[in-house]
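Here is a typical protein record:
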Amino acid sequence: MYFHFRYYLALSLLSSICHAATIVSFVQTKTDINVEKRDLEIDLNRIAVNFTQSSLSNQNLYTAFSDSNLRGNSQLSTQFFLTLNVNYYANRFVIFNSLISEYGFTQIKQNNNSFITNKNLDKILFSTDYTQRVWDFDFGFESFELGPYIKLSYQTEFQPTINIGRRHIINYLGGVKLFDGKYIKSLYLDLFAEHDLNRATQFSGGGYELGLSAEYKLNSGVKFLYSMNFKQYFFNSSESKIKPSYQFLIEARMEANLFKSFSMSPNLRYYVLKAENIDIAASNLLVGVSINFGKVILPPSKPLKDYDFSN
């Protein structure tokens, strides 16, 4: 059943992009770029503590993958999140740099009053992205920029996994994306290659990736945030000890402002991993409530327009 789902997902996003292209003639388009953002932007996007109920299935079949999304047991657990963006807006390009870290654990108290702690999230991700600013679209109700991009990222862990060690995943990709919209913060399609320096996995592979990040403000104090990422692997090297077929991640939360930069939100996070040589996919569903802090430390500058320098 999932095979129909993954192709439907790919086709639906691709058809959306193609449909947008057919209505370009009815939209105010500019061969220039958005002039509202220039220079350095530092965005402490999110620091969060999340309390969730974790429900895993078939994770024992995927221990060789050392995938941090599929660790632990179905228990009440705690996660910590950090997202920091440091971006530079030039006249014809943008450099997006980000640091994303996630760490979560489940602590189980046994009958003898001892504790068992299982790690259920563990990721440190550094990425840098060069995006060409080619077109600026204005639909009236929505506006965004469009351009090709290339990206390099490195992912590792806080704690190494027993019998496998610490993952060192290098990912390099290129594609096209919409970005910096009012509602659509990012919509991208790319081809990627991935390599893990960990000798226990010896993984090398590649494929295509689809992703979406969106935001909608219900009112001045409440906003809905949604993100989705789908990776389909075209090939895995013959030396790879693990052979993923696809990965799917969806995250959604409703943030309600508490005080200044603090907010509270119910969260949903669902992750699926399917291997070529394993019949059943593994999944991790997290549902919980988090306390968040986010603040733009340094907003990008706006160029001077229609200024009279004679004064």
